[in-house]
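Take a record.
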Amino acid sequence: VFTVSGSLPHPIAPDQGKAWQKINRKITTSPKIHPSKFGFENIRTTAAAVAILLIGFSALWITNRANNNQILSQQTEIISPAGQKSKIVLPDSSVVWLNSGSSLKYKGNFNRKEREVVLEGEAYFEVAKNKSKKFRVKTGILYVDVYGTAFNVKNYGNDEFQEITVSEGRVGISGKTGEIRQLIRGEQAILNKKTNQIVFTQNSPEVINAWKNNELIFDNTPLEEAIKYLERWYGVQITIDKAMIGKHKYTFRIKNESFREL
């Protein structure tokens, strides 16, 4: 048995309107977030560093590209003065003997997609084999195309004829309209510069290439042609009587003789 003494409290009547307003204020009012000063500065510093790196890499890429383009467009020229001969190893390991009074040019992009040189004068080539990259000699109006072989090219500015003689392998002789003919060992192409006519004949590579072994061999050679060789060989100028031109041919050999002995 429970006995309750005193009176009961009056019932509570809550104000629902005020309660909802209070709840709504708490829901709709977003808290203010104050990012720390350190965090904001850190973000700005990181962004600046990334921007500097991007600018640096871009400048470096542009500079390298410009330098590479400049190198590729540059041209190397080797000159062998009169009375001297030069031996050259090209970037693809091909070897070239350059006769006196001759020059050889090639660009900085040599051996990238193809191998191309420009010759003025006379040179003997031993081309490194590479079936994927053609080797081309541009000289006068004719081109010599090979992938790996040995041959001699003669095309001095004051010569009436341009000569190409094969020592080993096979070479292709081309003009502006395409390939004219292929030559094998011992075959020679002789172009008459005045008539643009080409004659194909047989000749001894050992005789034609003797100059690279410090020897000159003349076999029934017209005097005026022999004089041109001798001028380049000794680095001198020789004058002959006009009455002798076209009347005399000579057969002789030169190796160590001085000009006075000649």
Remarks:
- The mean pLDDT is 83.
